[in-house]
Amino acid sequence: MTIIAAVTDGREGHLALVEGIAEARRLRTDLVAVNLSTTTPNLGDLDTEGVFVTVVDRRGAGKEDSADAVLDEITAHEATRLVIGVRRRTPVGKVLLGSMSQWLLLHSPVPVLAVKLPADELQSGPLDALPPGMRRVTG
Fold first, then answer.
1. Contacts of 67 (CB under 8 A, 6+ apart)
2. What is the pTM of this model?
């Protein structure tokens, strides 16, 4: 039994790694961190006690290639669960930009644990600081 964590750039990818370690600890199994980010994850800052973590470097892939890389690692390691970090995006943003997370949710052969940042940790956007009197209208 192996857990796969898809580690991407940004806080969502870091959260997937942290939650992947926690899930591996809960299930008493190992973790394979599929590194899709531009840097190598720093495991020294994380509590990995009791969990054997392997980092598989799949950097430099595009969105579709990244999703395929994760699916390949699920098969190669006979994984039983996938952990991914997801972003909060508008419906229009999902249509225009696509979503690797959505692809993995729909095509993963194993159960997926999708984790997202708490609302108080979200980055502020340009619409968060509107002048007084202007209303924010979003879908």
1. 100, 103, 104, 107
2. 0.78
